[in-house]
TrEMBL record:
Residues 1-19 form the signal peptide. One of its GO terms (molecular function) is methylglyoxal synthase activity. The keyword Signal applies. Homodimer. It comes from Cyprinus carpio. Triosephosphate isomerase is an extremely efficient metabolic enzyme that catalyzes the interconversion between dihydroxyacetone phosphate (DHAP) and D-glyceraldehyde-3-phosphate (G3P) in glycolysis and gluconeogenesis. It is also responsible for the non-negligible production of methylglyoxal a reactive cytotoxic side-product that modifies and can alter proteins, DNA and lipids. It catalyses: dihydroxyacetone phosphate = methylglyoxal + phosphate; D-glyceraldehyde 3-phosphate = dihydroxyacetone phosphate. PANTHER family: TRIOSEPHOSPHATE ISOMERASE, TRIOSEPHOSPHATE ISOMERASE B. This is Triosephosphate isomerase. Its EC number is 5.3.1.1. InterPro entries: Aldolase_TIM, TIM_sf, TrioseP_Isoase_bac/euk, Triosephosphate_isomerase, Triosephosphate_isomerase_AS.
Length: 225
């Protein structure tokens, strides 16, 4: 199982990735155990230019960092990043040797309208169209209505979406990729919810926020033990 920290990612636990703000990437990499990877929380779609405040894959790699989180719901809904832009970022990050943790997920009104699959499939297509090597990509399903709200998708709800994503991957990418791609769940994961979520067939790990700062994070890392 895998885990990512905000962000912490757990892919195929106990593989752990710590997602740090850009000014702390070098510090995090120098202080963390080498067995724990580090991820940037964002990067831009081109190598250089007049893009004040942005960070490039080359800058991230200069810090010894191997991963980047792209398409997080806050990037989409607070900063207005489109599916197209996120796809372009995915392509550039992969071309420059970073692994990508690509986030997808529906808002509450979209779930209530019954269009969860339509939303996450559309988001996934823009990512998939820009991926050549899926071994370098982790999909993170984060229902927006469950992020930081204390609400968690039920294990059954998470499994249902993860299963549908694998079916979409099988039909639109390949059966081999559908079977091998790691799909992790994010959205108020806690020590109390992680065991049952981890027991689901298609949940390969977690994208963890606030709980990564608490002692219960150990329980999340060991959820599949």
């Amino acid at each position: 199982m895998n885990v990512v920290v905000k962000h912490i990612c757990l892919f195929c636990l106990p593989e752990v990735v710590c997602g740090a703000p850009p000014i702390y990437l070098d510090y995090a990499r120098s202080k963390l155990n080498p067995n724990i990877d580090v991820a940037a929380q964002n990067c831009y779609k081109v190598a250089k230019g007049a893009f004040t405040g942005e960070i490039s894959p080359a800058m991230i790699k200069d810090c010894g960092v191997k991963w980047v989180i792209l398409g997080h719901s806050e990037r989409r809904h607070v900063f207005g990043e489109s599916d197209e832009l996120i796809g372009q970022k995915v392509a550039h990050a992969l071309e420059n040797g970073l692994g990508v943790i690509a986030c997808i997920g529906e808002k509450l009104d979209e779930r209530e309208a019954g269009i969860t699959e339509k939303v996450v499939f559309s988001q996934t297509k823009f990512i998939a169209d820009n991926v050549k090597d899926w071994s370098k990509v982790v999909l993170a399903y984060e229902p927006v209505w469950a992020i930081g709200t204390g609400k968690t998708a039920s294990p059954q709800q998470a499994q249902e979406v993860h299963d549908k994503l694998r079916q979409w991957m099988k039909a639109n990418v390949s059966e081999a990729v559908a079977n091998s791609v790691r799909i992790i769940y994010g959205g108020s994961v806690t020590g109390g919810t992680c065991k049952e979520l981890a027991s689901q067939k298609d949940v390969d790990g977690f994208l963890v926020g606030g709980a990564s700062l608490k002692p219960e994070f150990i329980d999340i890392i060991n959820a599949k033990a």
